Amino acid sequence: MVSIDDSERPAARRARPVAARRGGKAKETAGSRERILDVAASLFRRRGYKSTTVRDIAEDVGILSGSLFYHFRSKEEILLEIMRAASILNCREAARIVGRPADPMTQLRELIELEITFTIGERNRDFQTVLYDEWREVPETAKPEFLAFRRTYRDFWRQVLNACHAGGRLRCDPHAAELIIHASIIGMIRWYEPAGPFGLDEFGGILASLVAAD
Protein backbone atom coordinates (compact mmCIF):
# COMPACT_ATOMS: atom_id res chain seq x y z
CA MET A 1 0.00 0.00 0.00
CA VAL A 2 1.30 3.45 -0.85
CA SER A 3 1.87 6.16 1.71
CA ILE A 4 -1.06 8.55 1.88
CA ASP A 5 0.69 11.07 4.11
CA ASP A 6 2.20 13.79 1.92
CA SER A 7 4.78 14.57 4.60
CA GLU A 8 6.13 11.02 4.36
CA ARG A 9 6.94 11.17 0.65
CA PRO A 10 10.68 11.08 -0.08
CA ALA A 11 12.12 14.52 -0.64
CA ALA A 12 13.32 13.51 -4.09
CA ARG A 13 9.72 12.90 -5.14
CA ARG A 14 8.33 16.16 -3.83
CA ALA A 15 8.27 18.94 -6.39
CA ARG A 16 10.65 21.64 -5.14
CA PRO A 17 11.85 24.88 -6.70
CA VAL A 18 14.49 24.32 -9.34
CA ALA A 19 16.55 27.17 -7.95
CA ALA A 20 16.58 25.52 -4.54
CA ARG A 21 17.69 22.21 -6.02
CA ARG A 22 20.50 23.98 -7.87
CA GLY A 23 21.65 25.93 -4.86
CA GLY A 24 20.06 29.19 -5.99
CA LYS A 25 18.88 31.89 -3.63
CA ALA A 26 15.19 31.69 -4.46
CA LYS A 27 13.11 29.94 -1.81
CA GLU A 28 9.85 28.15 -2.33
CA THR A 29 6.73 29.95 -1.20
CA ALA A 30 4.01 27.45 -0.38
CA GLY A 31 1.28 29.90 -1.34
CA SER A 32 2.83 30.50 -4.76
CA ARG A 33 3.12 26.78 -5.45
CA GLU A 34 -0.47 26.17 -4.42
CA ARG A 35 -1.64 29.04 -6.60
CA ILE A 36 0.22 27.65 -9.60
CA LEU A 37 -1.28 24.20 -9.06
CA ASP A 38 -4.80 25.59 -8.61
CA VAL A 39 -4.57 27.69 -11.76
CA ALA A 40 -2.97 24.91 -13.80
CA ALA A 41 -5.60 22.37 -12.70
CA SER A 42 -8.37 24.74 -13.75
CA LEU A 43 -6.77 25.35 -17.14
CA PHE A 44 -6.03 21.67 -17.73
CA ARG A 45 -9.65 20.79 -16.94
CA ARG A 46 -11.15 23.48 -19.17
CA ARG A 47 -8.68 23.46 -22.08
CA GLY A 48 -6.88 20.16 -21.73
CA TYR A 49 -3.26 19.55 -20.79
CA LYS A 50 -1.92 19.65 -24.34
CA SER A 51 -3.71 22.89 -25.20
CA THR A 52 -2.44 24.72 -22.11
CA THR A 53 0.99 26.34 -22.24
CA VAL A 54 3.34 27.37 -19.47
CA ARG A 55 2.72 30.96 -20.56
CA ASP A 56 -1.04 30.46 -20.09
CA ILE A 57 -0.47 29.25 -16.54
CA ALA A 58 1.95 32.05 -15.70
CA GLU A 59 -0.37 34.73 -17.08
CA ASP A 60 -3.32 33.48 -15.03
CA VAL A 61 -1.16 33.26 -11.91
CA GLY A 62 0.16 36.76 -12.57
CA ILE A 63 3.86 35.95 -12.89
CA LEU A 64 6.41 35.79 -15.69
CA SER A 65 6.81 32.44 -17.44
CA GLY A 66 10.39 32.18 -16.23
CA SER A 67 9.33 32.64 -12.62
CA LEU A 68 7.19 29.53 -12.81
CA PHE A 69 10.33 27.44 -13.27
CA TYR A 70 11.55 28.42 -9.81
CA HIS A 71 8.76 26.17 -8.54
CA PHE A 72 8.46 23.43 -11.17
CA ARG A 73 10.85 22.10 -13.77
CA SER A 74 8.22 21.66 -16.46
CA LYS A 75 4.53 21.59 -17.31
CA GLU A 76 4.70 17.82 -16.94
CA GLU A 77 5.90 18.14 -13.35
CA ILE A 78 2.94 20.42 -12.62
CA LEU A 79 0.58 17.80 -14.05
CA LEU A 80 2.10 15.04 -11.94
CA GLU A 81 1.91 17.12 -8.78
CA ILE A 82 -1.77 17.87 -9.41
CA MET A 83 -2.51 14.19 -9.94
CA ARG A 84 -0.43 13.23 -6.91
CA ALA A 85 -2.26 15.69 -4.67
CA ALA A 86 -5.64 14.37 -5.84
CA SER A 87 -4.56 10.75 -5.35
CA ILE A 88 -3.26 11.36 -1.83
CA LEU A 89 -6.44 13.17 -0.84
CA ASN A 90 -8.63 10.36 -2.21
CA CYS A 91 -6.75 7.66 -0.33
CA ARG A 92 -6.48 9.62 2.90
CA GLU A 93 -10.19 10.39 3.10
CA ALA A 94 -11.22 6.86 2.09
CA ALA A 95 -8.95 5.49 4.82
CA ARG A 96 -10.61 7.80 7.33
CA ILE A 97 -14.08 6.48 6.43
CA VAL A 98 -13.10 2.81 6.40
CA GLY A 99 -11.08 3.11 9.59
CA ARG A 100 -14.02 4.43 11.59
CA PRO A 101 -16.31 1.78 13.16
CA ALA A 102 -19.61 1.90 11.29
CA ASP A 103 -22.17 -0.23 9.51
CA PRO A 104 -20.79 -1.25 6.06
CA MET A 105 -23.74 0.33 4.22
CA THR A 106 -23.13 3.57 6.08
CA GLN A 107 -19.49 3.42 5.03
CA LEU A 108 -20.53 2.73 1.43
CA ARG A 109 -22.80 5.77 1.36
CA GLU A 110 -20.01 7.89 2.83
CA LEU A 111 -17.54 6.64 0.21
CA ILE A 112 -20.04 7.44 -2.54
CA GLU A 113 -20.65 10.91 -1.13
CA LEU A 114 -16.91 11.43 -0.80
CA GLU A 115 -16.22 10.54 -4.43
CA ILE A 116 -19.13 12.64 -5.68
CA THR A 117 -17.92 15.63 -3.68
CA PHE A 118 -14.35 15.23 -4.89
CA THR A 119 -15.35 14.64 -8.51
CA ILE A 120 -18.08 17.25 -8.92
CA GLY A 121 -17.73 19.65 -6.00
CA GLU A 122 -16.20 23.00 -6.87
CA ARG A 123 -13.40 22.74 -4.31
CA ASN A 124 -11.73 19.63 -5.78
CA ARG A 125 -13.29 19.28 -9.22
CA ASP A 126 -10.33 20.61 -11.20
CA PHE A 127 -7.79 18.30 -9.56
CA GLN A 128 -10.01 15.23 -9.76
CA THR A 129 -10.98 15.80 -13.40
CA VAL A 130 -7.32 16.15 -14.35
CA LEU A 131 -6.56 12.93 -12.48
CA TYR A 132 -9.14 11.04 -14.56
CA ASP A 133 -8.85 12.81 -17.91
CA GLU A 134 -5.11 13.25 -18.34
CA TRP A 135 -3.91 9.73 -17.57
CA ARG A 136 -2.69 9.36 -21.15
CA GLU A 137 -0.24 12.21 -20.56
CA VAL A 138 1.47 10.51 -17.62
CA PRO A 139 4.94 9.27 -18.63
CA GLU A 140 5.52 5.54 -18.33
CA THR A 141 8.10 6.07 -15.59
CA ALA A 142 5.50 7.76 -13.38
CA LYS A 143 2.59 5.38 -13.97
CA PRO A 144 3.55 2.80 -11.30
CA GLU A 145 3.18 5.42 -8.57
CA PHE A 146 -0.33 6.37 -9.67
CA LEU A 147 -1.38 2.78 -10.27
CA ALA A 148 -0.36 2.07 -6.67
CA PHE A 149 -2.52 4.97 -5.47
CA ARG A 150 -5.41 3.65 -7.56
CA ARG A 151 -5.07 0.15 -6.10
CA THR A 152 -4.98 1.52 -2.56
CA TYR A 153 -8.11 3.59 -3.12
CA ARG A 154 -9.97 0.73 -4.79
CA ASP A 155 -8.97 -1.63 -1.97
CA PHE A 156 -10.84 0.58 0.51
CA TRP A 157 -13.94 0.39 -1.67
CA ARG A 158 -13.67 -3.36 -2.12
CA GLN A 159 -13.28 -3.90 1.60
CA VAL A 160 -16.56 -2.10 2.23
CA LEU A 161 -18.42 -3.64 -0.72
CA ASN A 162 -17.34 -7.14 0.29
CA ALA A 163 -18.57 -6.51 3.82
CA CYS A 164 -21.92 -5.31 2.46
CA HIS A 165 -22.17 -8.38 0.24
CA ALA A 166 -21.27 -10.75 3.07
CA GLY A 167 -24.10 -9.25 5.11
CA GLY A 168 -26.61 -9.67 2.29
CA ARG A 169 -26.83 -5.91 1.76
CA LEU A 170 -26.05 -5.82 -1.99
CA ARG A 171 -28.37 -6.79 -4.82
CA CYS A 172 -25.43 -7.71 -7.08
CA ASP A 173 -21.82 -8.91 -7.10
CA PRO A 174 -19.44 -6.48 -5.30
CA HIS A 175 -17.38 -5.95 -8.45
CA ALA A 176 -20.50 -5.13 -10.47
CA ALA A 177 -21.59 -2.70 -7.76
CA GLU A 178 -18.19 -1.02 -7.86
CA LEU A 179 -18.35 -0.61 -11.64
CA ILE A 180 -21.89 0.79 -11.52
CA ILE A 181 -21.04 3.33 -8.84
CA HIS A 182 -17.75 4.58 -10.29
CA ALA A 183 -19.05 4.76 -13.87
CA SER A 184 -22.05 6.76 -12.68
CA ILE A 185 -19.92 9.23 -10.74
CA ILE A 186 -17.38 9.71 -13.54
CA GLY A 187 -20.24 10.32 -15.95
CA MET A 188 -21.46 13.14 -13.72
CA ILE A 189 -18.40 15.17 -14.70
CA ARG A 190 -19.96 15.59 -18.15
CA TRP A 191 -23.56 16.36 -17.31
CA TYR A 192 -24.00 17.53 -13.72
CA GLU A 193 -25.19 21.11 -13.27
CA PRO A 194 -25.33 22.68 -9.79
CA ALA A 195 -28.56 24.45 -10.77
CA GLY A 196 -30.19 21.13 -11.74
CA PRO A 197 -32.99 19.34 -9.87
CA PHE A 198 -30.71 17.27 -7.62
CA GLY A 199 -28.09 18.39 -5.14
CA LEU A 200 -24.80 16.57 -4.67
CA ASP A 201 -25.87 15.35 -1.24
CA GLU A 202 -28.88 13.56 -2.79
CA PHE A 203 -26.89 11.52 -5.28
CA GLY A 204 -25.12 9.50 -2.58
CA GLY A 205 -28.41 7.97 -1.50
CA ILE A 206 -29.60 7.52 -5.08
CA LEU A 207 -26.48 5.62 -6.14
CA ALA A 208 -26.45 3.52 -2.97
CA SER A 209 -30.05 2.51 -3.66
CA LEU A 210 -29.06 1.20 -7.11
CA VAL A 211 -26.86 -1.50 -5.61
CA ALA A 212 -28.39 -2.01 -2.17
CA ALA A 213 -30.60 -5.02 -1.53
CA ASP A 214 -34.24 -4.21 -0.81
UniProtKB/TrEMBL annotation:
Q: Which Pfam families match?
A: TetR_C_24, TetR_N
Annotated region (Disordered), positions in chain: 1-29
Q: What Gene Ontology terms describe what this protein does at the molecular function level?
A: DNA-binding transcription factor activity; transcription cis-regulatory region binding
For whether the record's keyword set contains Methyltransferase, the answer is no
Domain (HTH tetR-type): give its ranges.
Answer: 30-90
Q: Which UniProt keywords apply?
A: DNA-binding, Repressor, Transcription, Transcription regulation
Where is the DNA-binding region?
Answer: 53-72
Name the InterPro entries for this protein: Homeodomain-like_sf, HTH-type_TetR-like_transc_reg, HTH_TetR, KstR2_TetR_C, Tet_transcr_reg_TetR-rel_C_sf
Q: What is this protein called?
A: TetR/AcrR family transcriptional regulator
What species is given as this protein's source? Phreatobacter stygius
